[in-house]
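Entry for LGQLAAA5 complex. Fields follow.
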Amino acid sequence: MNNDIRVKICGLTRPQDLIAVASAGAAYAGFVFFAKSPRHLDVEAARALALEAPVGLAKVALTVNASDAELERIVEAVPLDMLQLHGSESPERVAELRDRFGLPIMKAVGVASEADLPALVEYGRVVDQLLVDAKPPKGAELPGGNGLAFDWRLIAGRRWPVPWMLAGGLTPQNVREAIHLTGARQVDVSSGVESAPGVKDAARIAAFVEEAMA
Ligand SMILES: O=C(O)c1ccccc1N[C@@H]1O[C@H](COP(=O)(O)O)[C@@H](O)[C@H]1O
């Protein structure tokens, strides 16, 4: 087992998801605060869930272009270890939120071609972690969580000055190859470990973590 690989399972909605994630050996649990997502949680539900999280599991709040007021509500109510910004937040906005909330920030950057790579360098100056995800298709309802992969060869051998996670269309079947090709030390998955949109599957979570850490 390769304990150097850290896994984030995103979009948890039920207490049994937390148990599945922790017992599989994942490092991060993600809660989605985005009303259009089938994984959306309101602040009260997220608070209840986060308070039940096993010690040692890092709790990440995923938001999309959230206002200060929304972020304040989330951060005040939910015990968190990191904020994941998954919208079109500018580097300036990211830096402002990092100062304001005092939480580590992970910024998602969508990749579809070489032209998207400079953004990773730019955001790398103002964040604690980068999330290298597939760019959503034009007109997609969700900016992430679409189960869509990008061409991993685009980032093979690339390094950034902060830790980073690979995301986008990962599954128990492809995660090992994705890690091998990109050199990622952290991976993030949502739809690839579900039995239906928004419904996490304990067996798939276990299989994903096992394959990632193999
Ligand atoms: O999971 C969601 O519903 C979601 C909604 C809005 C923005 C991002 C979302 N998920 C993140 O997207 C990537 C990839 O997900 P998938 O594995 O391809 O389904 C992942 O980082 C999720 O955290």
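NOTE: The first strand starts at residue 6 and ends at 10.
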